[in-house]
Specification:
It is a single chain. With about 220 residues, the protein is mainly beta. About 10% of the residues lie in helices and about 30% in strands. The strands form 5 sheets. It has an 8-stranded mixed β-sheet, covered by helices on one side. A 6-stranded parallel β-sheet has the order 7-10-13-16-19-22, with no helix packed on it. It has a 5-stranded mixed β-sheet with strand order 3-4-2-1-5, covered by helices on one side. β25 and β26 form a beta hairpin. The chain is globular and about 45 Å long. The N and C termini lie far apart (about 55 Å).
């Protein structure tokens, strides 16, 4: 059994816990030791039966544990590299968690510390970097590449030869047309259809997706007029 700690006590930790439970239902592999989170009010909180046992920087207190990244909310995703770095853990201390109902094709690659939720599909020659969060029912087609620390929400279709840059965020229900590039730290709003490249740090939304000011993003939706 591998002792596992999840980084982050938000909604993504629920998906990771579900994936671990499904993995263990086949052949027990992981034992959840707890959750690390930097929000003070989350300390001691119990998430689906698993306790927040410290802050991210306290990862070194658990020398026998592996870790998986669950930090990727719209409010925190751009800080994800710095947050994960606070663990001071080498790459080999991070596990990739793939739900048994996800499909990973032969020849596809999933990096360390990444999580892929139920119903998602990774096609041949697709690549997912390190510390990537992929939510339910998202498809990544052939020869597409997802950069480190990127977040793909639920129900996304990523077609062939696409590049999603490091630390980018793609909102749920979006479609990315073949060969487009989403730059580092960019945001694609929920339900968007991306038919042209998105520059680094840019926020786009709509059908077809177009740039909007970052301030137009409100809570979990984009308002387009």
């Amino acid at each position: 059994m591998i002792d596992l700690i999840i980084l982050g006590a938000g909604g993504n930790s629920l998906g990771i816990l579900d994936a671990v439970a499904a993995i263990n239902a086949g052949q027990p592999r992981y034992r959840i030791k707890g959750i690390l989170d930097d929000i003070p009010e989350n300390q001691g909180r119990v998430v689906s039966g698993h306790k927040v046992i410290g802050t991210i920087a306290q990862a070194g207190n658990f020398p026998s544990c592996q870790f998986v990244n669950g930090i990727s909310s719209i409010g925190s995703f751009r800080k994800m590299p710095q947050i994960v770095a606070r663990t001071a853990m080498p790459p080999e201390r991070f596990e990739a968690i793939v739900h048994p109902r996800a499909v990973i094709a032969e020849g596809a690659r999933v990096g360390r510390g990444s999580s892929i939720m139920a119903g998602s599909v990774l096609c041949p020659e697709a690549e997912v970097g390190n510390h990537v969060v992929i939510l339910q029912n998202t498809s990544i087609n052939h020869h597409s590449r997802i950069g480190d620390f990127a977040t793909l929400s639920a129900g996304i279709t990523i077609l062939g030869y696409i590049e999603v840059g490091r630390n980018a965020f793609v909102g749920g229900g979006s479609t990315l047309a073949p060969m487009v590039k989403v730059g580092e730290g960019a945001i694609v709003g929920a339900g968007s259809v991306v038919i042209r490249d998105v520059p680094a740090g840019c926020v786009v939304a709509g059908n077809p997706a177009r740039e909007i000011p970052d301030s137009r993003y409100v809570d979990r939706s984009f308002s387009i007029t």
